[in-house]
């Protein structure tokens, strides 16, 4: 039987009260931790070296941004996935510029896309963005502006809500977490097309808790936020739980590494059943292992002009 290492975090690192804190992103270029409050369109930053007093809202947008990624050779911007567009976020000014619309105008006005937005995502080893949209119909979105077919979408699991995705930086493998099925799935991934095949269950859980955002460490273990579960689980490559971080709030959404510290976003309890004062706050836990470097997105220079 695998021995489970346990951590307990009793208080938040930063009291921020996000409606839905999500998408934490470590920007090593500016030594800043970014995270998002999706419904409010807020982009938050904090300098971990300076502590909680460095926190600020760097952008307040009229669209819900849900995923960020660094861009090769462009330290002044971040790639950002929003409601129905992919664009760039300028770090200094907090302004957002769309570079690719996901839908035609008549599609965006249809009832089919009401409430639709992009969700979590990551860049693959060939510097393309892999993300997904929700709610139904769920689409896998593969974006690479360097190739003639710059944007492809395919419906992969109708009726299921994908809340986390990542690509292993060194292996041709990817994963998605499915909150309705309470599972994390692994796929074989073709980085030239964004096609995912050979779906299989990597990790499953029982009860009400749901796997949400996740990140991979240098030992090839996943750290998975358990929404409505008040915890983050470390899961081995064999799918076994080997560590657990317990948090004082239910709606745990996504972790990210900054060195050997794991920063964890949370949101409000969607069922309104939680009495915790720490809903929507940012948490931190030292876990003694670091994360794998994340892939960067690559843009054609003409896209930014």
Can you walk through the features of this model?
This protein is mostly beta strands. The chain contains 1 helix and 24 strands. A 5-stranded mixed sheet has the order 1-21-20-19-18, with no helix packed on it. A 4-stranded antiparallel sheet has the order 2-3-4-5, with no helix packed on it. Strand 16 and strand 17 form a beta hairpin. It is globular, with a radius of gyration of 18 Å.
Short description:
With 305 residues, the protein is mainly beta. 1% of the residues lie in helices and 47% in strands.
What are its keywords?
single chain, five-stranded mixed beta sheet, four-stranded antiparallel beta sheet, 1 helix
Q: How are the secondary structure elements laid out?
A:
Elements lengths: L4 E4 L12 E7 L4 E6 L4 E5 L9 E5 L6 E4 L6 E5 L3 E6 L5 E6 L3 H4 L8 E7 L5 E6 L4 E5 L7 E5 L6 E6 L5 E6 L4 E8 L4 E10 L5 E7 L5 E6 L3 E5 L5 E6 L5 E7 L2 E6 L16 E4 L19
């Amino acid at each position: 039987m695998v021995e489970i290492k346990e951590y307990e975090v009793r208080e938040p690192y930063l009291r921020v009260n996000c409606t839905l804190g999500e998408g934490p992103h470590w920007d090593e270029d500016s030594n800043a931790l970014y995270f998002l409050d999706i419904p409010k369109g807020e982009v938050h930053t904090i300098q971990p070296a300076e502590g909680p007093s460095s926190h600020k809202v760097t952008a307040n947008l009229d669209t819900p941004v849900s995923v960020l990624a660094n861009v090769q050779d462009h330290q002044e911007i971040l790639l950002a996935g929003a409601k129905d567009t992919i664009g760039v976020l300028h770090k200094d000014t907090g302004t957002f510029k769309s570079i690719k619309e996901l839908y035609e105008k008549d599609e965006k006005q249809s009832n089919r896309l009401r409430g639709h937005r992009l969700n979590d995502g990551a860049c693959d080893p060939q510097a393309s963005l892999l993300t997904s949209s929700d709610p139904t119909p769920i689409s896998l979105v593969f974006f690479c502006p360097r190739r003639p077919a710059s944007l492809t979408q395919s419906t992969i699991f109708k009726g299921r809500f994908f809340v986390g995705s990542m690509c292993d930086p060194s292996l041709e493998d990817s994963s998605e977490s499915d909150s309705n099925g309470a599972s994390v799935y692994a796929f074989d991934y073709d980085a030239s097309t964004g096609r995912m095949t050979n779906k299989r269950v990597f990790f499953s859980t029982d009860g009400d808790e749901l796997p949400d955002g996740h990140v991979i460490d240098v030992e090839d273990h996943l750290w998975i936020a358990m929404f409505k579960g008040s915890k983050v689980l470390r899961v081995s490559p064999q799918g076994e739980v080997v560590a657990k971080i317990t948090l004082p709030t239910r709606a745990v959404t996504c972790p990210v590494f900054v060195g050997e510290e794991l920063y964890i976003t949370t949101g409000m309890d969607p069922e309104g059943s939680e009495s915790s004062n720490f809903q929507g706050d940012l948490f931190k836990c030292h876990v003694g292992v670091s994360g794998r470097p994340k892939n960067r997105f690559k843009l054609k220079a003409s896209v930014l002009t």
